[in-house]
Amino acid sequence: MTTPRARSMVAPLAAVTLRRFARGKALWIAAGLAALPIGYAALRHARSAPPRSEELFAMMMLLVAVLPAMFVASSIGEEIEDRTSAYLWSRAIPRWAIVAGKLAALAPVAAVLLAASWYAAIRIATAPPPLASCAAVAAASVAGSVVAAGIATLVPRHAMVLTICYLLTDNAIGALDFSFAGLSITHQAKLIAQFADAPSPVGAPLLAMAGIAAVWAAIALLRIRRLEV
Amino acid sequence: MAERCSKWYGHVLGVSEVTWTLRGGIVGLLGPNGAGKSTLIKMMGGLLRPSRGTLRVYGENPFDRVAVRRRIGYAPEHEATWDELTALELVTAMTRLAGVPAARAGRAAEDALDRMGMTQAMHRRVRGFSKGMRQRTKLATAIAHDPDFLLLDEPLTGVDPIARADIIARIQQLGAAGKTILVSSHVLYEIEALTSEIVVIYRGQVLAEGNVYEIRALIDRHPHRIRVECDRPRAIAAALAAEDHVARLSFDRGGVVIETRDPDRCYDQLAAAVLAGGVVVSGLSSPDNNLGAVFEYLTGDGGKR
Fold first, then answer.
1. What mean pLDDT, rounded, does chain A reach?
2. List of chain B residues whose C-beta atoms are within 8 Å of the C-beta of residue A229
3. Which residues of A touch B47 (CB under 8 A)?
4. Chain centroid to CA B279: how far?
């Protein structure tokens, strides 16, 4: 539970992160990327061959590998690499609030953008998507953002590229039919969206995804506590 | 207060076994590039953790203790800031992150920018700022939350002479207002223009600290130099050559440089020699009163690094 005191530390950092983000190029590039599935669905629909939901979902999962990396990994990684982190580190805020503030600002943006893209694409292609599939995209995006934060604190210099590589690998693992596919965010997202071969309740994959995100959150928070700039 | 404080970057030594207490006022941290100035300042600002030893600011470890960082204002050496923001937005954000409530942060930021001569430019984005304006903005971020202790890492680097004089005056005003200020520089005259209290750091070690003159007194093995510009330098040299306190005499363009172990006696005898010989003196200076000479003595390498 976030205390008012903690919120007072995270809120200004989130606000300034959002303001900087809104003035940068990343948001526009991301919006362009998020429009790709919509454009693809519209094109196929115009040719009377609308794409299958699974096809569009796979496309969304590729975007889940890219957008959180563009937002969160580059925000934290560049802050450390460009040494602007010196300002943050010298302020009267606990280090965890830096990660929390970045995530509070950027993870929802990625989630909303991707979920909106999914909703629009699938609506054009077939019919309004079930709520669970929208939640799956949003949850995968949030989990991807947390992974991005963890990687950025571990390897700030190449945070964005490494995060994309990690999440693409996660995507590939999620497509496998092995037991360790359960470690994949993509796999859990498929289960939540009911795209798996054997439909299952949403609760368990949601918890599993939260578990994966929690591990990366722990890595980010532990690492940032000791990080020097 | 640092006690046997060391910092390594892998195998590279940043600061070595520094034991030092900063008491107050404006103190200049002087040393060549790579001497360990920024490392020491970063440890004091809570950006780095000592590898060994202890470092306390107001009795607390600034790396781990959030509360003490409220009392510290830090202006980093590098220029990088959040360039997408205006100066006012940047300073306001930093002020809020220093714990000032939102209701007061904007006003405090405006005041700080105003005090740094940035009133006209505060609504412009930092991206378009000159080096001098960036330095002023950095200083505003350091002072806006009204800290007791300011850490200014090379605040005069790259600014033009007029801006430099202005920034020096503003730092001195902060010192006069009771702030404890540690200012680093590798340029001797910058520090000299700011304060007479200096700490000399070299190869990660504090070599000396105190007033320029106190430091000079520490170096008793080095004679005090007096340069006399006159029409007949050889007459002056002849009058003083036999004195036991004179260690060396040398001539340069239009003058003689006397190196003495007893400056008071030397000045007396010099006056007598000028009067007796009817020498016309056009200039008298003591290069040892300049920090350059002190640094040269302390580092023992001519200060050329």
1. 91
2. 42, 47-48
3. 86, 89-90, 228-229
4. 39
